[in-house]
Amino acid sequence: MTLRPILIHPDPRLKKVTAAVTQVDDDLRVLAADMLETMYDAPGIGLAAPQIGVMLRVMVMDCVKDDINPARPMVLINPEITWESDTHSVYEEGCLSIPEQYADVERPAEVEVRWMDLDGAEQTERFDGLWATCVQHEIDHLDGKLFIDYLKPLKRQMITRKMQKLKRERARA
Ligand SMILES: [Zn+2]
């Protein structure tokens, strides 16, 4: 398994709609393993393929954050939201591509998601709480959308400028 560098906003690859996976093969299994390792290492609770520059509809997540419950690494290929609740909830979101910036985002509190697993089998599950927020955030990535796109333009521009500064500093380092 290999740690992959995570792209930092702004980057054109984070704004693109990604392509559906047509075949689950060894390359895809390697990609998924790398993504999980990169996510845990960051550390984060979710990661989408375009965040490491791979323009495919693949995401990983594990929202178990405590030491009591066993980890639940999930790999979702071609995930699709098939139902969302009328009730909404607000979470303070962050993103591995937008380090150290957090903001409240309102989303449906519960969603049902259909996806393909690493065996090529179809899965469906209903998510709530942090899992619901995370899966929606990651699916947004597959459509070139970031959590800051939900914020008011002024706040979004402020965060983008901070990220441009961070990238300049990292390039110099
Ligand atoms: Zn993100």
UniProtKB/TrEMBL annotation:
Catalytic reaction equation(s): N-terminal N-formyl-L-methionyl-[peptide] + H2O = N-terminal L-methionyl-[peptide] + formate
This protein's name: Peptide deformylase
SUPFAM superfamilies named among the record's database cross-references: Peptide deformylase
Protein's GO biological process: translation
Entry cofactors: Fe(2+)
EC class: hydrolase
Keyword entries, A-Z: Hydrolase, Iron, Metal-binding, Protein biosynthesis
Family, per entry: Belongs to the polypeptide deformylase family.
Cofactor notes: Binds 1 Fe(2+) ion.
Gene it is expressed from: def
Pfam families: Pep_deformylase
Catalytic residues (positions): E138
EC number: 3.5.1.88
One example GO MF annotation: metal ion binding
Superkingdom of this protein's organism: Bacteria
